Amino acid sequence: VLTDLAMSPDGADLAYRLRHYSELSAERGRRDSLHIASTDDLSRAVEIARGTPGDGLTWAPDSRWIFAGIRSRIAALSADGR
């Protein structure tokens, strides 16, 4: 399920969060994955993080970093996937 979506300030990239369910219960068996895709070719997305569910997804003003809640913390993730 797509839960978060954020366009970079420079308009070059799109970040999004997918929530995966492995059980029928909406509260158990969940994990999130965070992805970045260039707006030139959305089919070539890169997964930059995976873990227990979180909330929130935003870009730094310079479009180089993404901040997201994941794995029970706030993570600063490189926009190029490193």
Describe this structure in words.
- The chain has 82 residues and is an all-beta fold.
- The chain is 0% helix and 61% strand.
- The chain has no helices and seven strands.
- The protein has strands at 2-7, 13-21, 30-38, 41-51, 57-59, 65-70, 73-78.
- The strands form two sheets. It has a four-stranded antiparallel sheet, with no helix packed on it. Strands 5-6-7 form a three-stranded antiparallel sheet, with no helix packed on it.
- A hairpin with a 2-residue loop joins strand 6 and strand 7.
- The mean pLDDT is 92.
Q: Stretches where pLDDT falls below 50 for ≥5 residues?
A: none
Distance between the termini: 25 Å
How many E strands?
Answer: 7
Mean of all residue-level pLDDT scores: 92
- What is the helix tally? 0
Strand order of the largest sheet: 1-2-3-4
Percentage of β-strand residues? over 45%
Question: Order of SSEs, N→C?
Answer: EEEEEEE
Shape: globular
**Biggest sheet statistics:** 4 strands, antiparallel
Helix content: under 10%
Structure class:
mainly beta
Rg measurement, Å: 13 Å
Describe the secondary structure blueprint for this structure.
Blueprint lengths: L1 E6 L5 E9 L8 E9 L2 E11 L5 E3 L5 E6 L2 E6 L4
Antiparallel strand pairs: 1-2, 2-3, 3-4, 5-6, 6-7
How would you summarize this macromolecular structure in one to three sentences?
By secondary structure, this protein is mainly β.
